[in-house]
Amino acid sequence: xxxxxxxxxxxxxxxxxxxxxxxxxxxxxxxxxxxxxxxxxxxxxxxxxxxxxxxxxxxxxxxxxxxxxxxxxxxxxxxxxxxxxxxxxxxxxxxxxxxxxxxxxxxxxxxxxxxxxxxxxxxxxxxxxxxxxxxxxxxxxxxxxxxxxxxxxxxxxxxxxxxxxxxxxxxxxxxxxxxxxxxxxxxxxxxxxxxxxxxxxxxxxxxxxxxxxxxxxxxxxxxxxxxxxxxxxxxxxxxxxxxxxxxxxxxxxxxxxxxxxxxxxxxxxxxxxxxxxxxxxxxxxxxxxxxxxxxxxxxxxxxxxxx
Amino acid sequence: xxxxxxxxxxxxxxxxxxxxxxxxxxxxxxxxxxxxxxxxxxxxxxxxxxxxxxxxxxxxxxxxxxxxxxxxxxxxxxxxxxxxxxxxxxxxxxxxxxxxxxxxxxxxxxxxxxxxxxxxxxxxxxxxxxxxxxxxxxxxxxxxxxxxxxxxxxxxxxxxxxxxxxxxxxxxxxxxxxxxxxxxxxxxxxxxxxxxxxxxxxxxxxxxxxxxxxxxxxxxxxxxxxxxxxxxxxxxxxxxxxxxxxxxxxxxxxxxxxxxxxxxxxxxxxxxxxxxxxxxxxxxxxxxxxxxxxxxxxxxxxxxxxx
Lengths: 307, 307
Known about the structure:
Number of strands of chain A: 14
Structural class of chain A: alpha/beta
Distance between the termini of chain A: 48 Å
Strand content of chain A: 15-25%
Oligomer: homodimer
Number of helices of chain A: 10
Radius of gyration of chain A: 18 Å
Order of helices and strands of chain A: EEEEHEHEEEEHEHHEHHEEEHHH
Largest sheet of chain A: 9 strands, mixed
Shape of chain A: globular
């Protein structure tokens, strides 16, 4: 059973207090795929690039068990490009440049071999494109996870609300949860957002961890305290990849297993930020992953006896 | 065996987006004492008030097993007064008024009956006053916890660093940890601060939880996601009171027990913010406390099997 991942495959140029990169490989679907590949062995990608996108990067994805049959390569067109500069606190950034290029006319096509997927991960994209992918599936996946951002709330709120009616899990950050709900309290925000359609909500708080809500319960996963956050680019996508990768490989969609998936997603994100771009995720070993997850267990484990 | 608490007993006037109060009872030692009283039955207070301070408030402390023999009552003088207004995010506030009054000339005196205490909690005060209390103790307590704030770092850094050499646990917030260490990364900040003397450091992050460090380990306790934070005044002191109250009553100063103490402190703080001032802490029941601690267990509990 497969995991279908939809999202951007892109070039990024990143500047942080630690240095800067030229054009490197990025994009939500890239990070999601690399992260999910630690857990799920059958990943199908739907995305688009220009013919300036290096074959070696596609091969890198294939080596991580990401099937690229659904990756459209547009002749004589250019790959989506994003450039950003992080501030000293690493929590805020300025977008320096955005060149949509092939994304402007992206019409996603789900190959026949991608049908009957177990799980669907809708990475951050225009909500109408996310919906288009959903519409092409003959059978509803067991789990649909959608990631989005404030930009779509600002300009395409109706499309986003329409897409939310069809998903199981929404992942957004705390500011976006406040924007989407109009509530400052994250508890109130969660209740409102769950009324829009999703059965589960994950609120990502970066260095402050992540919250998982359903209509009755709440779970908190910390972020690992790190010496340095080198480059936060892709951390949220890497989180989502670990989350959905674990769920898809275990086929257990209970709240208990979602808690594990949130911890696993957090562990994966803690790797992502240690180097520029996808560098740390490329070729990450299983033992390192297990050791990191064990660090998360240590970080929050306590036993208490009520008297 | 007793817990010795040093800190302010004060009047506060508080304004939040939810309303405002006239002069109500506040002060670090008040919150610490009320919170610790849930766990520790022999609490000795060293502080100072003016004769404008109501007898009923002193009786309230006594009813919570806080011995006020060491509370100086200055005739014809006025109690320390602080007034503040919280912003909409409840994380930031403006000080509207500070009247030191009796604090200006406060010379702490530890009564003979307070000697041989098990634990000492040095609530937020001028570092030289904290040190004066330490100097009056004939035997070193098993555990010395010190709380402080940015104001003392700005103006009395040398005195603070001197006091830090003598304490076991320092509690500060994230911004103060950065200021004290000159390091942005909390992991690096913790390492540096531990080199100043304390064996343990607690970094309080408000709604984002708290971190406990020693030289080898780190533990993270979340804050309970709340519908509304009504009034954050005293939350940090209430945390410290629960922390030291648990440790003092169990006489177990291992890292494992400190982890429990951080969870218990977090649970106590989650009550404090539910109402104005000390209202929620006054007469809080044991069952409520146990139920709240159980909610913290649920919030972070997961079991994961590494494959």
